[in-house]
Amino acid sequence: MDEADRNRAVALRFLKEFHRGEVTLEELYTPDYVHHNEAFYPGLKPGLAAFKEALHARAGGISDFDVEIEQLIAEGDKVVARFVLTGRHSGSFQGIAATGRTVRITATDIYRFEDGRIAEGWAMMDFLGFLQQVGAMPGIGA
Q1: What pLDDT does 59 receive?
Q2: If you count Cβ atoms within 10 Å of the first and of the last residue's Cβ in the chain, which end, N or C, has fewer?
Q3: Taking Cα atoms as reference points, which of 64, 68, 52, 51 lies closest to residue 107?
């Protein structure tokens, strides 16, 4: 198995197992992990501990997660994942009270690896679509 295949397997494991609580971030991420998503995690400091805290604070609002991977592309030390998260808006999420609605969120992540573990990440999700699905913002043409 070459580097790209090994990294793809780690990214796939994260996407499939993390939201179900079947894997810990320490298994897959470096201790000095850096996450680049200032819009979603403003002021996030480098390091896995800070990322875990931010991730768990945000994750509480969506339950019954399912992940559908649409593309997983690996080359060298990078993996790009395009996927769809579905779940139920069951708790406060980004300051929006639970609606109980099922949401479908498209996302794209880029991971950079060091020695088979995720060392750096960039994430983009369709937050506008989420806001429209939970009724916090009107849809186009509404």
Answers
A1: 67
A2: C
A3: 68
